[in-house]
């Protein structure tokens, strides 16, 4: 009996190690992360640029779909890539459905990869379900702006974080949340009157993430 248990444990361990090895082996075949940007004035590293290109600067333990062990990751909102840390080196996780879900270990946050029409890239899944709610984060690079004359100051190169963009998945289509709640409600044909009553009673607004989460949970329940 002990021999049988030992064999089973060895098999499980082997599967776990192989799954993680396969993930990193595939990552090695893709790009090693380079924290550099080419500008008209030369090459800048991230350290030379003001602002932040990351959702969180530090690597965070997460469960990547089809990997059986936790892996240290961070999300680059400028390049829209997930970086993984392995033996002191940083690699870019391949963008494909095989690794399309990344669940953070120490928080309820979930990052999903989509490749459907214009919805190509990583999105935070705020509410799962038939009418799931997604959030897109993006940082853009602004090059240095030199001083025009002695009366003006130059503006340093920087990463600028754009406002989040939210999407509802409705009937397998992704709908960008508009500024007006009435326009959004037109997208929900099922139980429209109930949804409108809920929105009115709770004074929900489309420019408040918490309100969108409450609405998504209500619709999915």
Give a nutshell description of this structure.
With 221 residues, this protein is α+β, with helices and mostly antiparallel strands.
Task: Characterise this structure.
The chain is an alpha+beta fold. It is built from 4 helices and 14 strands. It has 2 domains: 21-176, no CATH class; 178-220, no CATH class. The protein is 25% helix and 32% strand. The strands form 3 sheets. The chain has a 10-stranded antiparallel beta sheet with strand order 6-5-4-3-7-8-9-10-13-14, covered by helices on one side. Strands 1-2 form a two-stranded antiparallel ribbon. The N and C termini lie far apart (47 Å).
What are its keywords?
2 domains, signal, two-stranded antiparallel sheet, DUF4384 domain-containing protein, alpha+beta, 14 strands, disordered N terminus, 25% helix, 221 residues
Q: What is Rg?
A: 22 Å
**Cα separation of the termini:** 47 Å
Instruction: Tell me about the largest β-sheet.
Output: 10 strands, antiparallel
Q: Regions with pLDDT < 50 over 5+ consecutive residues?
A: 2-21
Instruction: Tally the structural domains.
Output: 2
SS summary, helix count: 4
Helix content: 10-25%
| Molecular shape | globular
Strand order of the largest sheet: 6-5-4-3-7-8-9-10-13-14
Q: Name the beta content range.
A: 25-35%
Order of helices and strands: HEEEEEEEEEEEEEEHHH
Set out the fold topology.
Blueprint: H1 2-28, E1 36-39, E2 42-45, E3 60-64, E4 71-76, E5 81-86, E6 89-92, E7 101-104, E8 110-116, E9 119-127, E10 133-136, E11 139-142, E12 158-161, E13 165-170, E14 173-176, H2 181-185, H3 192-202, H4 209-220
Antiparallel strand pairs: 1-2, 3-4, 3-7, 4-5, 5-6, 7-8, 8-9, 9-10, 10-13, 11-12, 13-14
Keywords: Signal
Signal peptide: 1-21
Protein name: DUF4384 domain-containing protein
């Amino acid at each position: 009996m002990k021999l049988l248990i030992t064999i089973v444990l060895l098999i499980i361990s082997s599967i776990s190690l192989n799954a993680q090895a396969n993930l990193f082996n595939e990552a090695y075949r893709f790009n090693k992360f380079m924290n550099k940007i080419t500008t008209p004035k030369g090459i800048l590293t991230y350290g030379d640029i003001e602002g932040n290109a990351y959702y969180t600067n530090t690597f965070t333990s997460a469960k990547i779909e089809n990997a059986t062990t936790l892996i240290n990751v961070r999300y680059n909102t400028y390049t829209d890539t997930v970086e993984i840390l392995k033996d002191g080196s940083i690699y870019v996780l391949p963008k494909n459905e095989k690794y399309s879900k990344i669940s953070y270990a120490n928080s309820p946050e979930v990052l999903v990869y989509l490749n459907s029409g214009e919805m190509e890239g990583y999105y935070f899944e705020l509410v799962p379900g038939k009418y799931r709610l997604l959030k897109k984060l993006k940082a853009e690079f602004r090059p240095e702006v030199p001083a025009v004359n002695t009366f003006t100051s130059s503006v340093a190169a920087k990463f600028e974080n754009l406002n989040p963009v939210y999407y509802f998945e409705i009937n397998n289509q992704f709908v960008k949340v508009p500024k007006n709640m009435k326009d959004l409600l037109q997208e929900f044909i099922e139980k429209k009157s109930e949804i409108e009553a809920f929105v009115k009673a709770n004074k929900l607004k489309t420019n408040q993430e918490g309100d969108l989460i409450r609405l998504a949970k209500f619709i999915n329940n």
